[in-house]
């Protein structure tokens, strides 16, 4: 289904990011994962290359998205990323405290990882994607971009911004044939973010990473969809 295509997935070493990597890899896509922990990344890439072998090999980039200033250098210096026609912005930092109790540095980290880094990555990948087959950006947002919940002010703002980025960039890039969509998952108890959400702040859910990964795949292969922010609950 995705033979000859290449996806760059942030937050790809665990949880939803890795589930998306497995889903795309199982459909013939080459994947490049990004997260902070190089050792964990290496293990996951080895698993992907063993389970879903690809002629060009799956690979990884270790980088901390709390510092978006180095992203341009990372992308430009990684020769393999020039073939990436799919960008999945999946990395995220949760919040589980009232805004008045949240340290300022934590707020900055949430905004940098959840919103500023996707903005910069969209900018860096959009131009090179235009000459590639099936150019696609999928932003992993949250139902908290739509709903209000105690202790999630900075997180919700970051995801609301990600939705607006999705809609505006889709409008800007429509004539260039680059499709941009967002997924808004509900709570996924199996993820680190799902485990850290304060109990009772959001409604319980049986949503799995594989459910969301399947929806990501469906957006990537649908040639008509762009500018959509799709809730998955």
TrEMBL record:
InterPro entries: NAD(P)-bd_dom_sf, SDR_fam. Transmembrane segments: none annotated. Gene3D superfamilies: NAD(P)-binding Rossmann-like Domain. GO terms for molecular function: oxidoreductase activity, acting on the CH-OH group of donors, NAD or NADP as acceptor; quinone binding. Belongs to the short-chain dehydrogenases/reductases (SDR) family. This is Uncharacterized protein. Keywords: Oxidoreductase. It holds the Pfam family adh_short. The keyword Oxidoreductase applies. PANTHER family: 3-OXOACYL-[ACYL-CARRIER-PROTEIN] REDUCTASE (PTHR42760:SF133), SHORT-CHAIN DEHYDROGENASES/REDUCTASES FAMILY MEMBER (PTHR42760). The keyword Oxidoreductase applies. One of its GO terms (biological process) is fatty acid biosynthetic process.
């Amino acid at each position: 289904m995705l033979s000859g295509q290449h996806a760059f997935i942030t937050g790809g070493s665990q949880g939803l990011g890795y589930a998306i990597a497995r889903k795309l890899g199982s459909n013939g896509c080459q994947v490049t994962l990004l997260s902070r922990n190089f050792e964990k990344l290496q293990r996951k890439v080895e698993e992907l290359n063993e389970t879903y072998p690809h002629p060009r090999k799956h690979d990884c980039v270790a980088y901390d998205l709390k510092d978006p200033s180095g992203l341009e250098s990372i992308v430009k210096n990684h020769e393999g990323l020039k073939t990436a026609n799919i960008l999945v912005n999946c990395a995220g930092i949760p919040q589980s405290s009232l805004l008045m109790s949240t340290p300022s540095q934590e707020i900055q980290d949430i905004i940098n990882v959840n919103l500023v880094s996707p903005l910069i990555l969209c900018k860096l990948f959009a131009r090179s994607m235009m000459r590639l087959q099936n150019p696609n950006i999928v932003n992993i947002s949250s139902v908290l971009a739509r709903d209000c919940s105690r202790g999630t002010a900075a997180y919700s703002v970051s995801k609301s911004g990600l939705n607006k980025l999705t809609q505006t960039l889709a409008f800007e890039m429509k004539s260039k044939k680059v499709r941009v969509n967002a997924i808004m998952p509900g709570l996924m108890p199996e993820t680190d973010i799902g485990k850290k959400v304060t109990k009772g702040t959001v409604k319980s859910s049986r949503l799995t990473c594989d459910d969301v990964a399947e929806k990501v795949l469906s957006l990537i292969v649908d040639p008509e969809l762009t500018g959509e922010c799709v809730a998955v609950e």
